[in-house]
Design a protein that fits this description.
Number of strands: 10
Strand content: 5-15%
CATH class of the largest domain: Mainly Alpha
Mean pLDDT: 93
CATH architecture of the largest domain: Orthogonal Bundle
Number of helices: 22
CATH superfamily of the largest domain: N-(1-d-carboxylethyl)-l-norvaline Dehydrogenase, domain 2
Number of domains: 2
Structural class: alpha/beta
Length: 490
């Protein structure tokens, strides 16, 4: 792997060792806030378009981080938006010019951050581009628009910096860990950044300043194309789609084996979102297996080696469909078909009626890692890691998109509510993807992996896992992890 390096005229960067090379990253923290006016040189007004989970979190974090400077953060919403009332309760108002029509806010801003829904952005970006000030920066937190522009033969308007800052966690996590960072310096959600267009040489520091202002503990560089692929694939695989397939199929497996409902839920969903996620977060992937006694380790090994290949096959298929635009087209077609109609929810299967009873038992005993569940989950996570590595993604992106975002952002929220609740309440793009690919993972686990787990484990696959370079990459990233877990409200 070649070195991933970049420079900054504002921030002091550092080098992180990763498998096969190094990456240059920025370590965040509130001590860097005084540098933000320099990073945002030429920017006096930041317009955040959208008030979904990311829009709300980013607007609030930016405003708080820039308090006391002459930079203003404004929120732009479409006419008649139901989100306006909530934006007002958070202090953005028409009276002081910090809340307004999205096109008016875009026209009056020096940096316009586009956080409206993907389908809406695909439909309305020409209107936004038309009203931009000369030289105004265009900010993205997702590469979906790039994919759409390529599909339709469009492009970003010339003469504008185009940058992305992509937090590796859901919007609620971005806000809550930022708030916790008021007490623990550096607490936050890691972010990647990309410079897609840099007409005046200021784009990198613009992006780095944005990431620091969001509270990112560390920021690493990628490309908009690479971010789009890893993000969309991850949503459909280990972050949402695959984890839903895992817990649904395992709940059924344990019920058929004679477990009562509560025990089956504890061995499946509760195990993934609880002890397995915590172990990976605090000690890495290898620690899950190493913490088991020999007999349980054999169960893990058989589950791991039976699951890896079918999971890898689906992750590769998802990646291909993201890369060639098929997945993007499916999202846009679904949006057109569904329109404003509500999507049906997936939380109607029998297992989710058990969730409240399981949560009521917490604190009564320490739930151990279930070795079979752990083997299935870790194999699926490793399959995604390997697919990203083979496709040339940088290691910071690989471990953040495949591991850190899962165990430090999404799984804690799933633990507080449940996996089905998360899938039913995530972004439309992620929700559509999870609903499409989750059943594919379910079928692969039930029809291929679980029957194969009755056979002895594959020694070669286990050896590859034990010596996997991801362990080194995760250990490097762990040195930058804030000493605080996300606080999820009840």
């Amino acid at each position: 792997m070649t070195s991933t390096t970049h420079t900054s005229r504002v921030f002091s960067l550092e080098t992180m060792d990763v498998p096969g090379g190094t990456e240059t990253i920025l370590r965040g923290g509130r001590h860097l806030f005084p540098l933000l006016p320099r990073a945002f040189a030429g920017v006096r007004r930041i317009g955040v378009l959208g008030w979904g989970p990311q829009g709300r979190a980013q607007a609030l974090n930016l405003r708080d981080s820039l308090a006391g400077t002459d930079l203003t953060v404004a929120v732009g919403l479409r006419p008649g938006s139901a989100s306006a009332a909530d934006a007002r309760t958070h202090g953005f108002t028409e009276e002081d010019g910090t809340l307004g029509d999205w096109l008016a806010v875009a026209a009056d801003s020096d940096l316009v951050i586009l956080l409206i829904a993907d389908a809406a952005l695909a439909a309305h970006h020409p209107e936004i581009f038309t009203v931009l000030k000369p030289g105004a920066g265009i900010g993205l937190s997702h590469g979906f628009l790039l994919g759409h522009l390529r599909e339709t033969g469009g492009d970003f308007p010339p003469g504008h910096p185009v940058v992305a800052v992509c937090p590796k966690g859901m919007g609620d996590s971005v806000r809550r860990l930022y708030q916790q960072g008021a007490e623990v310096n550096g607490a936050g959600i890691n972010s990647s950044y990309a410079v897609h267009a840099d007409p005046d040489g200021r784009a990198a520091d613009l992006a780095l300043g944005w990431s620091v202002a969001l509270g990112s503990p560390y920021t690493f560089r990628t490309t908009l194309d690479s971010e789009y692929r890893s993000d969309i694939v991850g949503e459909r695989a280990i972050l949402l789609g695959a984890v839903h397939g895992i817990v649904e199929t395992l709940f059924t497996r344990y019920r058929l084996a004679g477990n009562d409902e509560v025990t089956a839920y504890e061995r499946s969903c509760e195990n993934v979102t609880g002890p397995i996620a915590r172990t990976i977060s605090r000690a890495g992937l290898r620690a899950v297996r190493e913490g088991l006694d020999p007999s349980a380790r054999d169960v893990f090994d058989r589950a791991y080696t039976a699951t890896y290949a079918p999971a890898r096959e689906i992750v590769a298929e998802i990646y291909d469909e993201v890369a060639d635009g098929t997945e993007l087209r499916s999202v846009i077609l679904a949006e057109r078909r569904l329109g404003a109609r509500p999507m049906s929810e997936i939380g109607g299967s029998p297992m989710w009626s058990v969730a409240e009873r399981v949560r009521a038992r917490r604190g009564v005993r320490e739930l151990p890692v279930d070795p079979f569940t752990a083997g299935v989950f870790v194999a699926t996570m490793t399959a995604q890691i390997d697919e990203f590595a083979d496709r040339g993604h940088p290691w910071s992106e690989i471990v953040n998109e495949s591991v850190i975002e899962a165990v430090d952002s999404l799984l804690p929220y799933m633990h507080a509510r449940d996996v089905a609740h998360m899938v039913d309440n995530c972004s439309r793009t992620a929700r559509l993807g999870a609903r499409r690919w989750g059943p594919r993972f379910q079928a692969a686990y039930e029809q291929i992996a679980y029957p194969a787990a009755e056979r002895p484990a594959d020694a070669a696959l286990l050896s590859a896992f034990d010596t996997h370079p991801a362990h080194e990459a995760l250990a490097a990233a762990a040195k930058l992890r804030p000493p605080v877990d996300i606080s999820v409200p009840a």
